[in-house]
Design a protein that fits this description.
This protein is mainly α. The chain has 8 helices and no strands.
Length: 157
Amino acid sequence: MITNDVLRSVRYMLDLSDAHVAELVQLADPSVVLDRDQVQAFLRKDEEPGYAPLDDRLLALFLDGLVIHFRGRREDAPVRAPETRLSNNEILKKLRVAFELKDIDIGQAFADAGHPVSRPEVSALFRQRTHPNYRPCRDQLLRYFLRGLTLRVRGPA
């Protein structure tokens, strides 16, 4: 999935300002400073003038910042380097941790979005890539999850 779409979805879901998006990135890595114009460029549609693609590293920092914001920083754990390449499964994992979701919550998010997924299918999304029952999270599945999570967080429109 396009990283900019994930950023737009989470920003809408949580009703975050541009400054708050930049603060979340900085929570994960204080050396990365985003200004308002950069954040706005990431949030534009790809056909709009001024659009800038969001690289996987910045999205990983944003999602890590989201985890720190909601759950707090773990002092006992070493600081991990942000991923340079994110798969949809890793995005799903980071959102799961940030929102403290259980398998049943994730299944409900899919069902709320109109795409029910069984518990074994949900479990397969979080397995290691080398596991025989691993299932890659396709773009449409991630969109359903983001839509269902938005309904859960914001409520029905």
